[in-house]
Design goal:
Helix content is 42%, strand content 12%. It has helices spanning 10-13, 34-45, 50-54, 58-71, 79-87, and strands at residues 4-7, 24-27, 95-98.
Amino acid sequence: MMITKQKINEQFRGGFSLFDGYETVELVPESKNNQDALLWLWCYDANFMPADFTRMSKSFQSKIIMELLNRNKLKSVPIKVVIDGLVIAEDGRPVRPYKYKEDD
C-alpha cells in the first residue's frame, strides 16, 4: 500500500483550523469505523494519544465528538460527512496532519 504525502494548501485547509501550523499531510487508508478516524484526528489535533481516548468513558467520548462538531459548526452533519468535509478525503481516505517540514 502506497502512502502519499502532500503539501498543505487552501484545498486542504477548507476553512477549518485542524491543519494550522502543519506543513504536510499523509493520505492513509480509511478506518473501518469512520467515527474512529474522526476521533483519532481530534485527538491528534488536541495533542492526545489515541489510546488515551479509547480509555475514556463512552459519555466523555460523545462530549468530545460534540465539541469537535460544534467547534466546526457541523453539529447536524453525520460523522462520515464531517470527516469528508473536515479532512478533504481523497479516494475515500482521510488525511492525517504532520507538524514537521518535509525533508527532500
